[in-house]
């Protein structure tokens, strides 16, 4: 018997989860716990049509479908549309045609040489930083220069591990998997599994409260237009939110990487007993202290890595938040893939510096629409995406680097003012 969209929507609870892919209905209740991408990212689509997300995330959807066969429980009724009610069928169809074109033109295929050279420039930065100390010895100026070079290598390694986590740079995925662990573990001291499970949720439901961990501010900030009003009406005042655009500079960029992320990473590795990732992360700290202990001693080396993390953290926060924080934030609305991604992302103007500085995440729109696309192809697909958005009246925002950064502060101030107004008058 064919299922209706309404019947599928009822199965959206932790203990009862169905979803639809290509009109086929699957019961993922038990299997979600074994999902390689994590239980949360697939559970976010419970009760929905997940076709667009399924295609977007999997490099080889036909291979993955083999694992779905035992979970098949039926199909949508012939009278049911091929997408959830409320989605723009014409837009969904046109975006699928665009994706087919992207695949046909080979824009989802990575160039290993590009990523090899990128990895090479990261390793060169680290080697130069250490070489300066061996040749010239320690001084305040050389230590500061060394710190800047290490922070640059850390930031660039962050963008590279982001690539390895999303796509297959090598022909054999097992080598891509190992390279990802090497870059994020040995070069950065973090966890590949922690990053994957967290970041895929962000891509699945960007700027959706309770589903995107990147906007889980732990009551430190109120974000968007709706959350501040909700907090204000409930008289919630964990922080003086009308000053959040000011204290953001004290606890946002300086602390997100060296404090919040580091605590979360190690807590996750120990709680999940992820000993492989822990070994990779510890290899980073072992290498770091072996290299810099002769120059700075133990406490000096701790101070050095803390300062490097401090610098990297500012870089990371501004690059990632300028394309998301000023954008729309809401509760679940079950939009089509393109509309959902465009409402939560914007681009930063292309330039050689912007491409390098952001790891090509200045093409945030294209990256979110095609998360498995290698970064060197974003500029090729961008005009096609823009034309599709113009056809359907979907806003496609491009900002300067300066405006992107200043909009982060403006959005925090706007949200804080909304909270204060609701707190005092509603």
Automatic annotation (TrEMBL):
<dbReference type="InterPro" id="IPR005804">
    <property type="entry name" value="FA_desaturase_dom"/>
</dbReference>
<keyword id="KW-0560">Oxidoreductase</keyword>
<dbReference type="InterPro" id="IPR012171">
    <property type="entry name" value="Fatty_acid_desaturase"/>
</dbReference>
<dbReference type="GO" id="GO:0016717">
    <property type="term" value="F:oxidoreductase activity, acting on paired donors, with oxidation of a pair of donors resulting in the reduction of molecular oxygen to two molecules of water"/>
</dbReference>
<feature type="transmembrane region" description="Helical">
    <location>
        <begin position="113"/>
        <end position="136"/>
    </location>
</feature>
<comment type="similarity">
    <text>Belongs to the fatty acid desaturase type 1 family.</text>
</comment>
<dbReference type="Pfam" id="PF00173">
    <property type="entry name" value="Cyt-b5"/>
</dbReference>
<dbReference type="GO" id="GO:0016020">
    <property type="term" value="C:membrane"/>
</dbReference>
<keyword id="KW-0444">Lipid biosynthesis</keyword>
<dbReference type="GO" id="GO:0006636">
    <property type="term" value="P:unsaturated fatty acid biosynthetic process"/>
</dbReference>
<feature type="transmembrane region" description="Helical">
    <location>
        <begin position="285"/>
        <end position="308"/>
    </location>
</feature>
<feature type="transmembrane region" description="Helical">
    <location>
        <begin position="247"/>
        <end position="265"/>
    </location>
</feature>
<keyword id="KW-1133">Transmembrane helix</keyword>
<comment type="pathway">
    <text>Lipid metabolism; polyunsaturated fatty acid biosynthesis.</text>
</comment>
<keyword id="KW-0472">Membrane</keyword>
<dbReference type="InterPro" id="IPR036400">
    <property type="entry name" value="Cyt_B5-like_heme/steroid_sf"/>
</dbReference>
<keyword id="KW-0443">Lipid metabolism</keyword>
<keyword id="KW-0276">Fatty acid metabolism</keyword>
<keyword id="KW-0812">Transmembrane</keyword>
<keyword id="KW-0275">Fatty acid biosynthesis</keyword>
<feature type="domain" description="Cytochrome b5 heme-binding">
    <location>
        <begin position="4"/>
        <end position="77"/>
    </location>
</feature>
<dbReference type="Pfam" id="PF00487">
    <property type="entry name" value="FA_desaturase"/>
</dbReference>
<protein>
    <recommendedName>
        <fullName>Cytochrome b5 heme-binding domain-containing protein</fullName>
    </recommendedName>
</protein>
<dbReference type="InterPro" id="IPR001199">
    <property type="entry name" value="Cyt_B5-like_heme/steroid-bd"/>
</dbReference>
